[in-house]
Design brief:
The structure is a homodimer of 348-residue chains.
Chain A: E1 2-7, E2 13-18, E3 41-45, E4 50-54, E5 90-94, E6 106-111, H1 125-144, E7 150-157, E8 169-175, H2 180-196, H3 201-212, E9 216-219, E10 223-226, E11 235-241, H4 253-274, E12 283-288, E13 303-308, E14 310-312, E15 315-316, H5 321-326, E16 329-331, H6 335-344
Antiparallel strand pairs in A: 1-2, 2-5, 3-4, 5-6, 6-8, 7-8, 7-12, 9-10, 10-11, 11-13, 12-13, 14-15
Helix pairs in contact in A: 1-4
Chain lengths: 348, 348
């Protein structure tokens, strides 16, 4: 893998990740770009004790552009995108319309491939491995920034989830605080350690899923994929490396090598259940990593949480009163049934 | 107000709330209804330390029926709905497809009016007052049930929020546990009391909003409506009675009398901003009340949280990776700008 770091016309960083070690990335961004005034502000909600990013400059952001104006495609004569090169493998750049900016964190866009019409599920294993390398490197780099408390790599996919660009891409948010969801996990982890004389809750949860077996979706030598016992979404799959590590940086070579196989298969099963003809399966894929600077970060378990907002083909799960008003999820699909369906559509 | 309690053919409770004291509600439900086997199950997520309701029977529930098959309209010759009467003011019944059932709680449907094509915003003040009476009475009744820990009255409105019935209605969830969102508020309340030598956080938040003034939407003699400082949604309004009370039961007559005026005006402003022509403004309105049996319930402040999922007319706010994956909201509309817009569209 070769990494080349450069800058866009307005000073934002652009990083190429190439599979070929002899790739040359010297294309220059010739657009007359002004720096966007990024006025993102983190506000604390005193009642909920959480933080909200107020990012007013984003209302003007690119919204469902036609394919021939895609800002994530390579540039070509007369059509300059966010990526000056005429082709690329994986490219990462600072978001021009970041939700988090300045002291308030950093937002990056990860282009998975230069092929506008592809999807993550359509990548080869080598391509997916390169994306994993890019996520890992970005986690390392962003963790070094002084204000960053937590690095979050994720993919939103599908117009129904609010994705405004069809080009296959994900995002990375480097938060200036530990997020409420991670805080909850850390609290549960500490309580369990206390209650059990030192046991690790992640280890126990994964071991219990393995022992029960009814919700297992896919077993690799180095990864386990299952629908969690108390799944919040109708089709939700968690992927854990069998050897617990706190973050992507700590993944060993065996786990890195097997990951593309496992993840691509799970994504393809989603597509088999929900179809890809009318519209691609909308999903959110979220990497959970230990925060950068918390005391017990070694106890955290890196894992990927994947879910679709479909309940069945053609029907969506909405977050309504109970979910949005009280944070109580209602799930109409028993996790055991979802897991069974996800096993049925396995590749031959 | 006259209240009449009866039962539907499958044993579910139906309660009429009438403005006329001489209303007679003796219509009998003649449908050949079997009781729906309600297999709802509450599961605890050990990592997030929250509860999920798994309600598999709900997949067969009524889904966008044509208007002439609306189950919330009054019954007429040859067309039997959930409400046997030929007309009604406000009717409440146990949900046939409950998310919470048995020991796991109870779900009710609140029909705001018999007029299928109306909306809450289109109710008269008297009609809205009757709905407030129904919410209050249901809170009293459901709080008496042995397993109930918290009563939540809310309205989901609009197909974009997943509402499958167009008839104006809300819902009531009686949870068998204190919800995570309320727990967070109770924790903040206790921490603030501790840190300030006994001050009430709700009182301080409301007083600070009043003193700042930039986010005030509407001031009544007995109610205050404002966009909160750290609003999670682009257009979010919180309504607090000026005299703090823990729940709807404790509201005094002055506050009860003024509420319809204030709330109807806020809802109508939402409609003025987002239009009602193509589609009604989608919103969630959520009553926050003190849980039934917690120690410091008297410190809690009843209030209504209202928000729309629209960012601007025609654009929706989606919960994507940051919100769903990490519980960190990104809000593109500064609360001060939302409040200003909501003041601009005041009724003459």
């Amino acid at each position: 893998m070769k990494k080349t770091t450069t800058r866009l016309a307005d000073g934002r960083e652009l990083i190429y990740y190439d599979s070929r070690d002899d790739a040359v990335r010297d294309a220059v961004d010739r657009r007359p770009l002004d720096r966007v005034a990024t006025a993102s502000e983190i506000r604390h909600d005193r009642l909920l004790d959480d933080s909200v990013a107020i990012a007013s400059h984003r209302q003007g952001r690119t919204y469902h552009p036609p394919a021939d104006e895609c800002p994530l495609c390579p540039s070509r004569e007369g059509r300059h995108s966010e990526i000056p090169a005429a082709d690329y493998d994986v490219a990462v750049f600072e978001n021009r319309f970041p939700s988090l900016a300045g002291d308030g964190g950093r937002c990056e866009v990860v282009c998975f491939t230069s092929d506008h019409d592809a999807s993550f599920a359509a990548l080869t294993e080598d391509q997916a491995a390169l994306v994993l390398d890019a996520w890992t490197d970005r986690t390392a780099e962003l963790s070094q920034l002084p204000g960053v408390a937590q690095v979050f790599c994720f993919e939103n996919r599908g117009a129904e989830i609010g994705v405004t660009l069809g080009h296959p891409h994900g995002q990375i948010y480097a938060y200036p605080f530990v997020t409420p969801r991670t805080e909850r996990m850390l609290r549960s982890l500490a309580a369990h350690r206390e209650a059990t004389g030192g046991r690790n809750l992640f280890d126990d949860v994964v071991a219990d899923e393995q022992a029960d077996g009814r919700r297992i979706v896919l077993e690799g030598e180095h990864w386990l994929a299952f629908v969690p016992y108390a799944a919040h979404w109708p089709y939700e799959v968690h992927l854990y490396p069998r050897r617990r590590v706190p973050d992507l940086l700590a993944l060993d070579d065996d786990a890195r090598t097997e990951f593309p196989q496992i993840y691509l298969e799970v994504l393809r099963r989603f597509d088999r259940i929900f179809g890809t003809c009318e519209a691609p399966t909308p999903y959110i894929a979220a990497w959970h990593q230990a925060p950068v600077r918390v005391a017990d970060r070694e106890d955290f378990a890196l894992h990927l949480e994947l879910f679709t907002i479909r309940r069945t083909s053609g029907k969506l799960k909405f977050l309504a009163g109970s979910e949005s008003g009280m944070n109580v999820f209602i799930n109409d699909v028993p996790p055991e049934a979802a897991a069974e369906r996800l096993r049925e559509v396995a590749s031959e």
